[in-house]
Amino acid sequence: MLFVGASCSSAFLQAEAGQKAASEQSNNVTYCIDPNWAPYEAIRNGIHVGISAQYMQLIAEISELTFTLVPTESWQQSLEYVQQGKCQVIPMLNTSDYRKQFLDFSVPYFEAPNVLVAKSGMPMIQGYAGVGNRVVGIVQGYRQVEYISRHYPGLRLKLIPSEEEGLKQLANDEFDVMVGSLMSVNMHINNLKLKDLNIVGYAEPFDSLAFGVNKTYGHLVDKLNFAIERIPETRKVEIYKQWNNVQVRYSRNYVVMVLSTAIVILVFLLFTFRNRNVSGYKRIINQKNEEIGALQATLLEKNKTLAFLSAHDTVTGLYNRNHMIQRAEEEISRFHRFHTTASLIVIELTPVSDDRDSIEPSAKEEALKAVATNCLNTVREVDVVSRFSGEQFIILCPQTELNAAKNLADRLLDCISTHHSLVESFKTAMGLSELRESEEFTEWFERTMKALYQSKRQGYGNVTVAQ
Length: 467
Known about the structure:
Layout lengths: L9 H16 L2 E4 L4 E2 L3 E4 L2 E3 L1 H13 L2 E4 L5 H10 L4 E5 L9 E3 L4 E10 L15 E5 L3 H9 L4 E5 L2 H9 L5 E5 H11 L4 E18 L5 H9 L4 H11 L19 H46 L12 H18 L3 E10 L9 H18 L5 E6 L2 E7 L3 H16 L2 H6 E9 L6 H17 L5 E3 L2
Parallel strand pairs: 1-5, 9-10, 9-11, 16-17
Antiparallel strand pairs: 2-3, 3-4, 6-12, 7-12, 8-11, 8-12, 13-15, 13-16, 14-15
């Protein structure tokens, strides 16, 4: 839900509703792409080419949508354009918590591994944990930047404009290791003839690529999903085979032939070595193909593992404690930079009976789900709701002053109070506080908890504001 200012006129609202209805009826869709991410997608002579171009052609045939390219000069600019509404969709990108703030996503339709690239002589690296003190190059705006910043904050990063430019910088020793997409990295290494660069490991998580749609045009997601689900598997295989130009490279030093050897002996030796090496190269090619197959199998396993690394609570479906702390720290960082305030609401259920064991586990679970439902039905879209611990919930209200947060908390308390089965078994206490200057999350949370305890002392069923 969004707060609507009293000064907004009805004429403005009608115009906005009319504009949205018109956009829903139109089959013309503008889109932006990464202009330098071949073979996945690229702009060549003003034309969109690559894997995403072929998928969009199939989707256009199935859905009767018409796609119009909005050219950009970089991936970062494409992200800015779709966020600003200058283009409606981006056809090939990963989901992330940050992107979900301004994009809705279709179902994934293409998966590909990410790899680590380094100069020859670098030992194999087992994911980001094996990078150590090396400087890692990564394209600005890629989902991997957000992933590394969250899970490997100690890594030293250097942002680069594109994978092609990054490989050139890597070859010039401007950093140590680069993260890139397997098919794109392989193509650029071969095209640029960078024989001194090798793939030295894989980089989690692997790509699971989907359409990202500006939330204003969220109605397009159903049309895109309808078309994606009806693309024949044979066409997917054809596209993959057409663009999968991964080549196995193996270098070998040959002993210099003795120049004084007779021509006949030289020819004989050459034929002998040729026959011997042909069988050796076949074994190497089979070995490398097996390694690629193992890498693809690892990709599937990683995708399964990522499903378990969810940021949600298994009982209520709300965000869990770790995700709430991360979002709160992001909001505190934003407050320090832009001085946009934020508020925190803490809700806690306490059994009416002093004997906690008298409440059936199923009844407790239903109560937690009821509170979660009331929270989601009451808060705004920008608010973050989490089950922080046992019977405790936290609501983070970004860019929200104390009075507005108090009104939200009062409405939520009213909703909970009307849930008779919940009120019969549990008492509700609520604490509220507004973020202060130079305050960290721990201090902010403790101050809100003091307000929660004051709500309990006052007999529950009220919202207490922290001092």
